[in-house]
Amino acid sequence: MFFAIVATVVKAENVNYSTELLYNPSGDGLMVVRKIVHSDGSVTIGDYKGDMVIPEMVNGVKVVAIDAGTFKDCTDLTGISIPGSVVYSGPGAFYGCTSLKKLRLEDSDQELIFIDEDEAYVTCRYWELAALEEVYVGRNFRYQHKNGEPGIPFGEPFSHHSSIKSVVFGDKVTRINVGAFGWIHTLERVSFSAGLVTIEKDAFQGSDQLASPLHFPESLKFIGEYAFYGTVIPEVVIPNSVDEICDYALSISTLKNVVFEDGEHPIKLGAGNMDGVAPGPFGTAMFSSGGGQPLEEAYVGRPVESEWPDLFHGNATVKKVTLGKHAIGLSNSYFENCTSLETVVLGENINRIGDLAFFGCAKLKTVNLPEGITSIGHSAFTGCESLTGIKLPSTLTYIGDYAFTNMGLTKIVIPKRVEEIGVEGVSNWLLQTVVIEDGTTPLKMGHADVGSVFLNCKKLEKAYVGRNINTDAFHGCESLKELTFGNEVTAVHAFFCEGCPLEKLVLGSSVTQIGENAFSAIWEESAKLNAIYCHATTPPVCADANVFNNISKTTCKLFVPGNAIDAYKAADVWKDFFNIEVSGINSITRASSSDAIYDLQGRPMNGGKGLLIVGGKKMLAK
Fold this sequence. Notes:
622 residues
């Protein structure tokens, strides 16, 4: 069967030019061609101009192919639409179409194959010298040699094009090939529609004018290495459907905002850092910034799996990062040396803060530690000079070495579940107040018998200890003036507060023993302790006479329960105090609403708060 749409048939020696498309048979359909030789020897050549639409059917026959060179050098062709029925196109089909600005590959479930004649770049770039600016891709495509072998790398028909400005993908596109739109130095905008599953390696690499924000469809699963390397994209939104992003896929030197949408399924990330430098001996993170990459804000809404999980390590520009409710851990060095980081919001399922997680984040001002966190690793917040306050979760059980050193903290509260604090775990020269909450589990500090947890706390003035501690926790804190032990404390470790300029000491009702030199001063001249409040009715046993060494027993007043004053006057060490007085309150209880309440002058009170006389006893009404 032979079919052609032609002008009037002429003699063999005549050539006729047609502005209508010409066709030849091709397998079970038709092929668009440039030239037809008729049975009488006459020739018709397609003179293709303007905006052309290749039909899907001609006289009931499907159009399935475009012949080699069909539109070659058609300099007046301005637009072309290729139907979904076309399944292959021959070499050089659109070469030299210098006015061709618009291309449309209509939607189709069928793949379009571009045939390459040899290994020369010029033949596999179908739109070489064409003026393409707008491209619509409604189907998958690939190219191959005419012998059926795969095409050469980076030889995709659109790669290295010199004028394409925008590409729009239709819903039927499931794959963008290796290097398919790479090195197009004019490409500015890309739009993805629903259906895309895979973006292969180098897909847009080197397209250094691509500046449109990337909002991928919910169907996307995979982004290959270097896929957007070298682009100038300012924002990327990663849907929760994505399973993997390979090395350097998002190595974008202009990226300011990145969003990993919420999802429970972990995402696997490659190592690639933002300046494209290969991972060093300690690994580099997906969003590290050795090359000055200007990331400012990020949202991570799902678990991350990576060979180098320090996701923002060394990023010098990021200011705010939020981890959503499905993020489950802050790995080692996650934010290490993020020197511009100011705000971090952690989701409710964060269960640990890794070693060096915030190390060197000098501008960090705000971070929340949600309930559920059990461990804070060594040096986790070291150098966070701008962080003046932090609330530790009640679930916390471990604080590593140097975890809170060289920070801006003025007060810290250690929750009752904390079992261990490492060497210099809380060592801050600005720290003024320490509260160790009441608890029955002993607290391990530092190494062996040497605490040094609060070493270098030069301004620490006030501390509350609600649990037994296994070390000389406040040894040498040169400004500590007031120390209070709660009623859960049963023993005070040796040298616990040696050398501190204490002025006031309060011992809870359960203290039974005090170790050697626990409250001794280095010299008599440095001793400032003038009041001790001991609430135990049985005098605590002192290890030796040096418990209060160099403390003046003449000027320091000892306040004890009224029913225990004789016992203290007879007990070793305690009996040496010249002024042993009744503390005035044997016990502090909550006043009952049914009790008759009076103020300290004996006047009846109708309700009230403060120190009152209730039923003849002194009580505290709250």
